């Protein structure tokens, strides 16, 4: 610990933030901010703006354009989003860091899971406590410590808080990529595992819908005139499932089939929805080719048309090069805070994939320690509230003091 005496006063300063942070985490958890709840996202954003005012940063609220999705009845419907929050300070500084996390949750406005609850003195259960409202508070605390320190002048930062991560960041992807290109490294605040382990390499992921049209007919009077979209959808599902094991380690998961209706009608519409995970770019391109072949095969069925919607929203995030150098540096810093920083590969993905695709080395699980996210058992460990803020504050102060590892410094031309 003595190694960091010059940073110690601001690390210690964070201790006094515990009560305020816990209060905020509870009250923010009780605000529903499911991705589709635009009014709830507005309320959450107002809370964040109030809390972040102490940083005295340049602040923007950015509207996102609607995108399109295939509705269960096969029609194309618009998707609306909340706004992106952007805070920026010292953009001209010699080192620039991008801090990101989402303020939406997976819990819809009508979910039964709406309130936080202490399970024991060190465990808080509640929607978004780990994923990722605790992460937003970790950013706030770490930046607040940095700004009080003399090392702030050496580092400029941008914070992006997006409203659509839980549905794949389709609306905010362009903003994430733009900000990633301007930074030297990225810090993202998805939760760490309960024991503090971070996510290392991540798979890439794509969500797709296949819209299938046939021809309706009365099942009794003119069955043979009909062309069943449901039967074509079943064929499509079996072909997609058959790709498992054929494209490297890529997985094809059929999540949902919409379609059909009364059993006395040959159904004319069906929608097949599926997710694909890939470990690398080759698998991604092969998977795209194979999906295209399935679409072609379904289109050869008499009276049937199939069309593909969706795409790979997340590229794979390999653990190599500058990203690996960043992890090794953070492991060293953690060691000096008595934290054992380990990481392991995961099939999950997050905006860390997007930042990596834009060329930004990043660590994407700098948020609180917790688990069982996306379920009503979601929890955080409260002894990580200040612990994780200290880790981030140390990273920021070290970078501001010019102590970045060589691999992360801008290469001079
Ligand atoms: Zn998350």
From TrEMBL:
The lineage of its organism: Bacteria, Pseudomonadati, Pseudomonadota, Alphaproteobacteria, Rhodospirillales. It comes from the Bacteria. The active site is at residues 104, 165. This is Acetylornithine deacetylase. Gene3D superfamilies: 3.30.70.360, Zn peptidases. One of its GO terms (molecular function) is hydrolase activity. Residues 201-297 form the Peptidase M20 dimerisation domain. InterPro entries: Bact_exopeptidase_dim_dom, Pept_M20_glutamate_carboxypep, Peptidase_M20, Peptidase_M20_dimer, Peptidase_M20A. SUPFAM superfamilies: Bacterial exopeptidase dimerisation domain, Zn-dependent exopeptidases. Keywords: Hydrolase, Metal-binding.
